[in-house]
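ARCHIVE CARD
SHELF: 3
SLOT: left
DATA:
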Amino acid sequence: MKRIGILSSYNGSGFDTINKACENEILNAQVVLVISNNSNAKVLEKAEKNNIPNFIINSKKYPNENIDEKITNLMKEFKIDYIFLSGYMKKIEKNLLNTFKNKIINSHPALLPKFGGKGMYGSFVHKAVLREKESESGCTIHFVNENYDEGEYILQKKIQIDENETLDSLENKIKNLEAITIVEAFLKLSV
């Protein structure tokens, strides 16, 4: 059984998706660790309710420590096989990348390489897609490397954009698509 660690800054909808797939035995895995940089992140409450060890690691709590090293050591201590970024708003640093090469996975709410990079997350992505009058959008599950949204793709899925698409309707479509695609990506990795 694979051991999954989650890095999340807010609600952790990707955590919900993965945890549910593990509980329903769709994935032969278990979420065993949740780390957030935000002490108010809802994902911490969700982890607590599911009896999953969870930690707040940020420079405010550990002002004189190497945060990258601290996260890496915790992931190693919990014998993590894969790390999933569930809306994690910090850049992944060198130590974690080198220790977990091709084991850190992100879901991006667009069809990369379009609409990726620094500052392109959440509704900013959907606004840009609508502003550019794209006919389709989707999501990309990819490995994480040292550059935002440039890691090797694991899986992409597309949806059509309706003529009267709104920011909310597009965001909801993509969230639903991501939930399916995240699980399929992990299945593709034989998890």
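SLOT: right
DATA:
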Amino acid sequence: MDENQNQTNQLNIELTEEIADGIYSNLAIITHSNSEFVLDFVKVLPGVPKAKVKARILLTPQHAKRLMAALQDNISKYESVHGTIKQTEGIGIPLNFGGPAAQA
């Protein structure tokens, strides 16, 4: 491959400071239609009955499947170094995060 073709195949991705800080999420809600997948990332806090969507990502079905494969690959690599990731009991929304009940 010559140098011009190699430069044509490069993609420069910009990461702003604001985006680089990231957004914490402990709940993801995934919905789909026939043409897109919608991933809503939420931060749920203990004792707070209302939570806001902090980020929404829209994907084509093809990109959603690629994301799933990339996550599976990365989880496999993580577990090969750090051990199996343990699942918490239940799939419900963690309103109390398994800790003691809040007291006033």
